[in-house]
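Notes, Module 5: Reading structure tokens.

Key idea: the token line is not a picture. It is a compressed description, and you learn to read it the same way you learned to read a sequence, by spotting repeated patterns. We will look at two proteins. The first is printed below with its tokens.
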Amino acid sequence: MSKQVLVTGATGFVAGQVIAELLEHGYSVRATVRDLAATDKRAHLMALAERTGGALEFVAADLDRDTGWAEAVAGCAAVLHVASPFPAAPPRDEQDLIRPAVDGTLRVLRAAAASATVRRVVLTSSIAAVAHGHTEHDMVRTEADWSVVANSGAYQKSKTLAERAAWDFVAALPAEQRLELVALNPGMILGPVQSAAATSTSHEPVRMLLSGGVPGSPRVGWATVDVRDLAVLHRLAVEVPEAAGNRYIAAGEHLWMRDLGRTLATEFDARGYRVPTRVLPDLLVRTIALFDKTIRLTVPTLGIQERLSSEKARRELGWTMRPVRDSILDTAESLIQHGLVSAPRRAPANPAAA
């Protein structure tokens, strides 16, 4: 297989780590951005290419427009469609999320199918397309499961409908346009950011706990994955022939937000941060949610555990995950280093730890 690949949404949190993984393994990467003139948003990627000696180029292509996609995929053997909106608050109109997710995915697939060189597309989906809207919460969800759209929020609908549309599109292609599709379904993505601009909504729990933005933790939690491990899974999804036609869940054991806070407290309280470790009553959370859109996102999942299996990715692709504690602490260190968390509100207990 040619080592020329396309990655969409270059300046995003996940895409940046995927690009790093690919460059470090000898791939030539073409990456899409909305605006080629906004060089400041991709300076960290240019520096990465210099550091690794990898081949990295940028092209303009927008998921809301048809222009640019034929040129973007030209000469590529694989496309990694990573870009997708991930809001920090519920949209006023769910179609503001659903439409770009579905239409953007289909634009990328149409360009790939029309290309003379692309044979595989790796779609970054989500466990939002697997584990939501079910009435039974004690089951361990696998790749055979799909979220129930009628019972899901706007984001979950957008990911589910986009992935469904991708599988339907590929299934309907004529034989001469055979295109291999692999879907990756990550949980909440932790891990270090590459720049202050390349953050994600998934960083918000860590940021809020470190900055004292919440008095405690709602009874919410997530099955998590480290962005660096997810980047490895993207590369494996390109390289392993047998991955074609498969979905792969990328998520570890459920992590309650209170445990996230306690892990942060063990490391950062001594450095002057005051990480809240108490659990907030559900009634208080529902009251706060009336005024805080970010907290409002947590209300539908209060008390619900995300139970998922990544066994298929381990077994078929040889994929592994690092300990979640490492991911939590590396996330926090990264947010501090990039100035995304305010300075400690009190002097560190051990000045040498500051």
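Here is the second protein, with the sequence above and the tokens below, as before.
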Amino acid sequence: MPAVFLKDRSLLSVGGADAQSFLQNLITTDITSLASGEARPGALLTPQGKILFDFMIWRDGSGYTIETDAGQRDGLMKRLTMYKLRAAVTLVLVAEEGVSVCWGEDEDGIRDAESVRDSQGVRDSQGVRDSRFAKAGIALTRRPGRHGDCAEALYDALRIAHGIAISGSDFALQDAFPHDVLLDLNGGLSFKKGCYVGQEVVSRMQHRGTARRRVVTVSAAAALPGTGTEITAAGKPVGTLGSVAGGSGLAIVRIDRAGAAMAEGTPLLAGGTPVALALPQWSGLVFPTSSDEASA
């Protein structure tokens, strides 16, 4: 089982008598259904429904731990504090920096991953299972602190292969809707719980079926150009390249435009590099092929 230390991850602790209701009424994740030992993705949105902060969240005793990018931590803490008002909630910056991830690839691995072994082979029952990877059949656990020394590129390659996007590398904060990064399909976005910040906008997108931008995997026979490179079809923009690892990458694209181009046999290019696009298999999504949708 590979074990990778992600040094640029930070943790917040949310506790107190009102912790559950506070978070439930604020973030995209339905935490009332969050099982012990499970980590789910989530986001705090702008009132316009775009992702202001993205993170992983899991139960920690009677409270919750939020794992986010180190660059987001202070801003997220400030925003949560602003919303707290007089609620019986405690918000604490966790001193331990970084998170380790360890993974396997089958159901036996999912069970085995619940007892994570660190780089010295010592059994440790700590660690929470990442629901995003579980959707793709990958047993990946997350654990605060350094418990592995494999290259971070291994984790990035795993993310890319299974269409799991992260802010900074794949999308800019305040620029993407939850649907764009598949939060509606990986357990990070609830349409059944009550109101939360930005809920009206994302619910309208869901019920009207207007989500056209989606994460796709990108492959090429040669090395892909850098993050931020525009993907085009017949000279028209389709999307933007995100994480890149050799000839593989992620992108957020207009799947209606990409689908129409693929149906017509129009080459897709990242810069000048021919590419093939695929929707993550676990998502159940398919490319629309209607030229009418492509012009929407």
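Summary for the second protein:
- The helical segments are 19-24, 70-84, 107-112, 131-135, 152-161, 199-208, 255-264, 291-294.
- Residues 70-84 form the longest helix (15 residues).
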